[in-house]
Design a protein that fits this description.
single chain, 85 residues, mainly alpha, 3 helices, 0% strand
Length: 85
């Protein structure tokens, strides 16, 4: 009794389909890449992507900056440098 089985290799047709599927997926991913010139980048930005437009995010960044610097940065809060305030 021979218990060792040799694995079946995929046929040439199956390999060709897999290769075609891979190439199609690669083409679909590469189609999304485009070079945007610097003067056109401003037109593509969305207001929601700017952290300055969100007051809560700006307040958090201000707190982290104050705690890291150990002094008030003109944001209205004081800091000790340890981040415990």
């Amino acid at each position: 009794m021979n218990l060792a089985r040799t694995p079946k290799l995929p046929s040439a047709a199956v390999l060709a389909r897999l290769q075609l599927a891979f190439l199609l997926a690669l083409a679909a991913c590469a189609g999304g890449c485009a070079h945007v010139p610097p003067y056109a980048r401003e037109d593509l930005t969305r207001p929601g992507m700017e952290s300055e437009s969100e007051a809560e995010e700006e307040r958090f960044r201000s707190h982290v900056y104050d705690a890291r610097e150990g002094a008030a940065g003109g944001h209205g809060s004081t800091g000790g440098g340890c981040g415990c305030n």
